[in-house]
Amino acid sequence: MAFSEAQFQAAVDKINTGMNDLSAKMGEILPAARAGVNHWYVPDFVADMVIWSAEKAVSLAKSIWDKIVEVLKGVAAPVHFFKYAFDWQDVRGLASDVVGSVKPEALTGTSAWHGSAADAYRKNIPPQGAAATRVGTVADKASVALGICAAAGLAFYIAIGVILVKFIVAMIAVVAAMGSVAFSWAGVALAVEEAGVNTGLIIAAISALTAVLGAQAQQLVALHGEARDNSVFPGGTWPDPVAATYGDGTVKDGNATWSLA
Question: Which range marks the domain in which residue 190 is found?
Fold first, then answer.
């Protein structure tokens, strides 16, 4: 799944709406239970059990609420991943500009320049291209890794939204069940089942996201190693292409000859 900022925003809006709906349903469970037992023919011990059941259902719903609140703390991360992936492609573009600029066929000005300095200059041009190519490669891989992280985040929050909607539907049934003494136990049983199932689904979604992010984190560590590899950076720095730095060279222009030192 590719990352779409519009799709991500829609997923987040769906979760926020769902959290408001879940909060409302949680607030309806106890009043529904109290209304269900508020009859002369309902014994006190039955009423007590029904109210206990309602409180248990609210507690289970609250546990789901808390888990979703926890995962929402990182909701901004996928957008940042996408932005950084975009920025790294800009770096790749700049590096490719350097590669294109130092190709031999692009350096037409050096054809009229001869001497030791010219030879040293031409010798230092290929490492420039190799170094810029390395920068472009690292930038591209970093962009891909961050893009995968952004897409994984999108898939994760879409899954959370689906789980939340499913749980809200169950809570509507719980409210209806709690409103009837005869079905109060069915209500708490449904709440227990749904809380367990949806907790499991949330944990599974977190595990899947963690696996993807972990793999990409290792990829970024490897990229850090590539960036620190000086094999294409002679002496650990960019090669110096400035002709004036070579003191033993000469420049010939017609009959004139002068030293650059």
Answer: 5-77+141-241
27-68 tens-digit pLDDT: 988 898 888 888 887 788 878 888 888 888 888 888 889 989
Q: Would residue 237 count as lying in a domain?
A: yes
CA distances from 200 to 22, 156, 192 (A): 18, 14, 12
* Tally of CA atoms within 13 A in the half-sphere of 182 that contains its CB: 0
219-253 confidence digits (pLDDT tens): 888 888 887 777 777 666 665 555 455 444 444 44
In a domain, 101, yes or no: no
Question: Which residue from 70, 216, 234, 228 is spatially nearest to 138, judged by alpha carbons?
Answer: 228
* Residue 132 C-alpha from the chain's centroid: 27
Q: How many domains does the chain have?
A: 1
Q: Is 161 exposed, middle or buried (0-12, 13-18, 19+ CB in 10 A)?
A: buried
Strand partners, 259: 250
